[in-house]
């Protein structure tokens, strides 16, 4: 198996910008996982699908489709119907567990959409749903797909849906590299100021928000640039003949339990316990009946 070059560099030409997405940058938290995900070709097969990812994916899909309905049909009930219709059984222990979570997710979506109707004008159209946005810096070509982009008081607002158990606050919104990059890219793509980012927590209906400044956005961009520099340096080192396993070293920890490449990674296995594909449902908030 070989590692694909991250960027092709032609003699005499400036290095191409690093193609960065928020998930790609976050993946480098463990360089081995990054290499297995983005560099090794043929790509190693991932493990089986996780049930908690199925829940998150269906909720996102249902909300995206809901916004495509004509105005009169955008009701909370239509949202829960979208969940039922879009449901997948991937990763669940059995049909009974899957169907119980289908009802749970439908309940979340209906409750969230009822809250949204109370929060603002239910007839407002988002500027984007599952919208791809992009921008460039001197080092990065940034792109990403945003769950929703609202327009409020003449500015864009980034909306990111969350289904995890943990309640979220302004620090979570402020610290999110993904949200900051989305804000910069949305402003660049849609030519409209964007400073506010929001995490919408489906299980509780709570919204965690932060108003970025030029400074806080710059800090995130710098952080992204530094990560990209580290990735390119590691890639160059391997291209120079170094052993990929040593350069892209593992960073094992308890979260290895949820890594798609755990079965290929002795260090990850030693530092975490194995999980069934439905164990992550415990990370979701099931307190709402
Ligand atoms: S199991 Fe852990 S150490 Fe191994 S690749 Fe995955 S995240 Fe990295």
Walk me through the structure.
The chain has ten helices and eight strands. Strands 2, 4, 5, 6, 7 and 8 form a six-stranded mixed sheet that branches. The chain has a two-stranded antiparallel sheet with strand order 1-3. With 289 residues, the chain is an alpha/beta fold. The mean pLDDT is 93. Helix 4 runs antiparallel to helix 5. Strand 7 and strand 8 form a beta hairpin. Among the domains are: 69 residues, no CATH class; 93 residues, Lambda Exonuclease, Chain A. 42% of the residues lie in helices and 18% in strands. It is globular. Bound molecules: iron/sulfur cluster. The site of iron/sulfur cluster has 13 residues, from helix 2 and helix 10.
Name the average pLDDT.
Answer: 93
The backbone outline, from C-alpha atoms, is: globular
What fraction, in percent, of the residue positions are helical? 40-55%
Residue runs with pLDDT of under 50 for 5 or more positions: none
Biggest sheet architecture: 6 strands, mixed
Any idea of the CATH class of the domain at 128-220?
A: Alpha Beta
Order of helices and strands: EEHHEHHHEEEHHEEHHH
